[in-house]
Amino acid sequence: MSLKRAVITGVGHYLPDYVLTNKELESYVDTDDEWIRSRTGISERRILKEPGKATSYMAEKASLEALEDAGADASDVDCIICATVTPDYLFPATAALVQKRIGANNAFAFDLSAACSGFLYALSTGSTMIESGRAKKVLVVGADMMSSILDFTDRTTCILFGDGGGAVLLEASDEYGIVDYVHNTEGDEACMLYQPAGGSIKPASEETVKNKEHFIRQDGRSVFKKATEGMADVSLEIMERNNLKAEDVAWLVPHQANERIIDATARRMGLSREKVMVNISHYGNTTAATIPLCLYDWKDQLKKGDNLILSAFGGGLTWGAIYLKWGK
Ligand code: COA
């Protein structure tokens, strides 16, 4: 029996309508459009403002679109993995809410927490299910409502993030799909980027709310340094061990945290800017959603057989890269 690969057969996305511009942020915190654009590459981001709608809503919309794109039926999906750090509830899993709403009645569903690397971890997890033959169709979702954990009085974090969701369907292929992955975790740096309260170490209390401990905290400068090194290191590692030269790579699909991190990664890989997917200007950092949102935005430019390097860095600390041959 020949080993199968997991290939992406459908891509979907969801972005909220509300556009939060740098200009509007100037009215909340002491910042300015020029500072944000020159330090991060971000001009605007989307915010989910409709009451009663949260991460599962964006995940559901993206999933339905991915299934439609693949021409697949929800009832044929074997597993749903939702990468998120902003689930609707701590439990049940957001993936379970999606499973019900899209009618994937034969799928088991779970969430995966790896912050900005979540989509890559979920993609490689899903791919092993396909490769082993245990599953025929796996829906991999990355969705985050970062606005739900942002302190809009903290200029060092609130300018960076946005809300959004993306999804892909994985199916088996003899030829195309995920070839290799590299994943790393450095747990001793967990507090470099985290949400201090709301988990079991510090359950919600009057004090945690007063101290704004349910919002994201980060040591921006240290994360920047680590991310710049980490994303380039894993991208080069995966190229080297698959004998890929810069000219063999059709696209770099980088996590969108900061345009300067993306540029540094592309530079070390020897890639020209035309080969790099960059949409941070419009969406900011949507955490687990950045990579599928790039795939969605560029899907009409992708050709069968294109070599893609997906690369991400995030809280945990977590980072990784995936090498895949586009096969849609
Ligand atoms: N507007 C204006 N000034 C700001 C500001 C803002 N939104 N945020 C910070 N500043 C100020 C700082 O207070 C500091 O002032 P000081 O020199 O008087 O102390 C100055 O700008 C420089 O701050 P610094 O943190 O060194 O800036 P930076 O060039 O490192 O950029 C980040 C800050 C957050 C944009 C950058 O560190 C970054 O992108 N880090 C990675 C964050 C990230 O991607 N996290 C998710 C990981 S996946």
Would you kindly provide a written description of the structure presented here, covering whatever features stand out?
Helix 3 (55-70) crosses helix 4 (94-102) and helix 7 (220-241) packs parallel to helix 8 (259-269). 32% of the residues lie in helices and 24% in strands. The chain has 2 domains: 5-175, Thiolase/Chalcone synthase (Peroxisomal Thiolase, Chain A, domain 1), CATH 3.40.47.10; 180-325, Thiolase/Chalcone synthase (Peroxisomal Thiolase, Chain A, domain 1). The relative contact order is 0.20. Helix 4 links the parallel strand 4 (79-83) and strand 5 (108-112). It has 328 residues and is α/β, with parallel strands linked by helices. The strands form 4 sheets. A 5-stranded mixed beta sheet has the order 1-7-6-4-5, with helices on both faces. It has a 4-stranded mixed beta sheet with strand order 8-13-12-11, sandwiched between helices. A two-stranded antiparallel ribbon has the order 2-3. The chain has 10 helices and 13 strands. Residues 31, 35-36, 39-40, 116, 155-156, 159-160, 193, 218, 220-221, 223-224, 227, 257-258, 285, 313-314 line the site of coenzyme A.
Strands, helices and their partners?
Elements: E1 5-14, E2 18-21, H1 22-26, H2 33-40, E3 44-47, H3 55-70, E4 79-83, H4 94-102, E5 108-112, H5 118-132, E6 138-145, E7 163-173, E8 177-185, E9 193-194, H6 206-210, E10 217-218, H7 220-241, E11 251-254, H8 259-269, H9 280-283, H10 290-298, E12 307-314, E13 318-325
Parallel strand pairs: 4-5, 4-6, 11-12
Antiparallel strand pairs: 1-7, 2-3, 6-7, 8-13, 9-10, 12-13
Bound molecules: coenzyme A.
The site of coenzyme A has 22 residues, from helix 2, helix 7 and strand 12.
